[in-house]
Amino acid sequence: MNDVFFEKDKVYIKNAKNFSLAQTLDCGQAFRWKAGGDGVWSGIAGGKYIELKEQNGDIVISGASKRDFEEFWFDYFDLGRDYAAVIKQFSADKTLFAAANASSGIRILRQEPFEALCSFIISQNNNIPRIKGIIERLCENFGEKKEKAYAFPEAEVLARLTPDDLAPIRSGFRAKYIIDAARRVAGGEIDLNSLCKLGYDEAREILLKIKGVGPKVADCALLYGCGHIEAFPKDVWIKRALSDYFGGEIPACAKGAAGIAQQYIFYYIREKSK
DNA sequence: TCCCAGGCTCTCT
DNA sequence: AGAGAGCATGGG
Fold first, then answer.
1. Protein A126 CA to nucleic acid B4 C1', in Å?
2. What are A208-261's pLDDT values in tens digits?
3. Are A43 and A50 a contacting pair, CB within 8 Å?
4. Cβ pair A113, A98 in contact under 8 A
5. Is strand C less than 7 A from the beta carbon of A133?
6. Quick check: A126 CB within 7 A of strand C?
7. Nucleotide nearest to A163 (CA to C1')
8. Å between A184 CA and B12 C1'?
9. Domains of chain A (ranges, CATH numbers)
């Protein structure tokens, strides 16, 4: 792990490797981070608003206390993981290695489970710019207003709503799915935090009970919200890539870190298609 | 305008 | 078990 220094409300992650803000915050795994014109990224997670920038090879976080960093942001940015070792593991597959090297600044964010679940329910049959808009309206309408941003809504708040109440966010047919998820979580039927401690298969089966949650959305919730990095979400882009470049199969060397491989491939093929 | 989007549900074989 | 239509909405 890198050296970390604290100064007032700033955190300096010194000589940060495998951590590009642009790649990590705008690769399609999270939808609420915004790039300022001056290289400053801003956003809110866990109800905490921060700003980040890259400076002389360091990552500088503004608006986070030492305690916030140690209790929340360290895990959020997956700072305990050695991504260089993961990429080395992927080098056994030529194409995966190329994808990894093109996107080696991506870290898999450990988002709050409910936010990840709702975000990827919203993502289905949808495009990324519109997903961001729907989520932003969801937060502005139903999230707690903090000093500089709206937090993601609590399940308990959404559980009391009807699909008509969600009309302002213009999520279309997904509204009823969001509410079903919120009700199961708020009602205690599904404990998302305990899902993170269960095995992948068992946790996945539980998520699949939610209306509007199929294999892909469940895998995204598990990967981005529960730390199950063996999850490998297959969306239209990944399915195309698997058949075009990998003979339809997940490369064997991705085993144990398939979710990271998936995100590298997703980023790689989308960059190439631009 | 038209196609499609980080899919899923429902129905029909 | 597998295939296909339908779904709300709007970005490009």
1. 9
2. 999 999 999 999 999 999 999 999 999 989 999 999 999 999 999 999 999 999
3. yes
4. no
5. yes
6. yes
7. C8
8. 31
9. 4-80 (3.30.310.260), 113-226 (1.10.340.30)
